[in-house]
Structure formats: C-alpha cells, structure tokens
Design a protein that fits this description.
Blueprint (H helix, E strand, L loop, with lengths): L6 H15 L10 E13 L3 H9 L5 E6 L2 E14 L2 E19 L6 E20 L4 E20 L6 E19 L4 E15 L3 E15 L1
Antiparallel strand pairs: 1-3, 1-9, 2-4, 3-4, 4-5, 5-6, 6-7, 7-8, 8-9
Length: about 220
C-alpha cells in the first residue's frame, strides 16, 4: 500500500520560514501563551507480526502479508511559556494510518486487508535552552492518552475485525525552534509516543519527525 507524505506542505513551511527570516528583527519569544501546528512523517514500530498476532487472537490465522511502517502525522498544541527555560503544552496528535494486507492461512483465495491507526491527546513539559541568533533547543516529557484501532476486512467468508483500545503512554521529544519575529517561530521535532494499543489491536510505538510553526499571542 502506498504511503502519502505531504512534501509540498513541509516544503511550504520551511521555505516560508526562511523567507520571513530574512526580514526578521531581534525576536523575543520569551513568555506567554502560544499555539503551534506541525506535520510530518510517523514511523511505527509495529511490524506485520504484531498485527498477525492481534488477528490470531481473534481466531483469524494469517500468513505472507505486508504492512506499512510510515504514514503522515500531524498535530496541534496550545502552550504557555512560563519562563525562558520552561513551557507546558496540551494538544492533539494524529499518528497516522498504517495499512496491512495478508493471506488467510488454510483458506484458498482468502485475504485480509486493513489498517492500524492511533490518535490522542497529549500533555507535556518542555525544558528550553535559548541559544544565540534566535535559536532554541528543547526536550519534551509528557503523556499521551491514545485511542488505537485495528480495522480489517476479509474475503471468502473471513470475519471482519474492528477493535480499539485506549491507553496512556509516555511521550518523549527533542526539538529546535527559530524565532522569525517576536510572534512567530519555526519548529522541527522528533517525538516518540509509547504504549499504543494492546494484544487485540497490535501493540507498539510511533516516532514522529515533523516541521511546524508556533504563534505567540
């Protein structure tokens, strides 16, 4: 199954940020509320075997299949920078849909096609280190409350599967930001969302690699 990643959106954010940077004055992204949005690639640690096991637990034996490990992710966060070195954020993240297909064991011309997907709300604290030339780096530590779902439909009499599970898992991240103006900053981030799903949906984690913009009120 083909994975779609919005390269045009990523390029627009990066190029737009660089163009604005050429006109920027000394930025002051110090304290106060802000909102941020990001988009990028989500990479799942859940391989085909994890979904095979989830389907097997529901009485569907499968073999010789494939699964996607990468898809589009996006998120929106609301934050408050308490000091130049500390901020808190709450937000929503969609970690993507990872397609899956496999043949059914012992059944002629029977197949299962489906997807594993996860989304949730997050809360995190950011430790920020301001550097020279309007650049800051930061680490993120928090939690995600995620709803993870496995959907699969079969052919030739194979049962349809639609199961979900909600978990609370750790959120770890690293990022860097560049203050374009006193109100606007660009961001690049890596985040890892853990403890997604359970044996009935497949169980794993997703790493996200994103670019975005933040706006200070």
């Amino acid at each position: 199954m083909k994975t779609f990643i919005p390269h045009s959106i990523v390029a627009t954010l990066v190029v737009g940020g660089l163009c604005l940077a050429g006109q920027a004055q000394a930025a002051d992204f110090s304290t106060g509320p802000y909102v941020s949005a990001n988009v990028g690639a989500g990479v799942s640690s859940l391989r085909k075997g994890g979904i095979d096991s989830a389907l097997g637990a529901q009485g569907i034996g499968v073999s010789s299949g494939t699964s996607d490990t990468q898809n589009t992710t996006y998120g929106l966060s609301f934050g408050y920078r308490i000091t130049p070195n500390l901020a808190v954020e709450a937000g929503y993240v969609n970690l993507g849909k990872f397609g899956y297909q496999s043949n059914v064991s012992g059944a002629s011309n029977a197949a299962v096609v489906g997807e594993f997907k996860s989304q949730g709300v997050t809360a995190a604290a950011l430790g920020i280190l301001p550097l020279a030339h309007n650049v800051s780096v930061y680490g993120k530590l928090g939690l995600i409350r995620a709803d993870t779902e496995l959907r699969a439909s079969g052919s030739n009499g194979v049962d349809t599967v639609n199961t979900s599970h909600t978990t609370t898992g750790p959120l770890l991240g690293l990022g860097a930001s560049y203050d374009i103006t006193p109100q606007v900053a660009t961001r690049v981030e890596w985040n890892r969302y853990g403890n997604l799903g359970n044996p009935s949906t497949g169980y794993g984690s997703v790493n996200t690699y994103t670019v975005g913009l933040a706006y200070k009120f």
